[in-house]
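Look over both lines:
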Amino acid sequence: MQDKEEERSLVNVERKLNQEGYTADFSVREGRLYAMSDDKKTYGPEDVTIVDFYRFEGESNPDDMSILYALETTDGVRGTISSAYGTYAESDSLEFLKQVEDLGKNLSKKFK
């Protein structure tokens, strides 16, 4: 049986999502989402659904926190994007994901 902390590690959650078909690594640039393997195709907030998300808190430093989002685009591309939050927040990604949420394109789910 896996230790609960080990099970909740970012790497293990990413591995599980990858096995479920979330294979693209997404990034945000200039207000658009793109899969890092194909940065020619981009998506606006209206083209993206937040399927799930996971929050990770640093053990020793509360500023060491991140969120991993599982996303799906309107053309079926599934992948993940992670972002720090708190002091080290990556504002482009968080702003984009907030726009997706504001459009109601997220599941009504509490942080895990």
Notes: Helices lie at 4-7, 10-19, 91-102. The chain is about 25% helix and 40% strand. Strands lie at 24-29, 32-35, 38-43, 48-57, 65-73, 78-85.
